[in-house]
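Sanity check

After download, print the first record. It should look like this:
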Amino acid sequence: MDIFLSIIIFVASLCVIISILLQETNSSGLSSTIGGAKETLFGKTRTRGLQATLQRMTVISSSLFFLAILIFNIFLKTSNIFE
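Expected structure tokens:
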């Protein structure tokens, strides 16, 4: 079970890294974080095509990564391998 979860964690982390690195930046530096944050926060800008796919891939793979880490942690605590 721990090998299976380790493989899922590894693949999910690679997917998160790749999907984040492939996304285009929409900001132009520190000034846009202050002024342009409300447009991104309230969803006025819509992503289409490849960017929407990468955004969905980032959300799904990061959620999978989080759940796999959580399950792996619970599995390690209940298996008593450290005692």
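If your output differs, re-run the checksum step. Summary of this record's structure: DSSP finds four helices and no strands in the chain.
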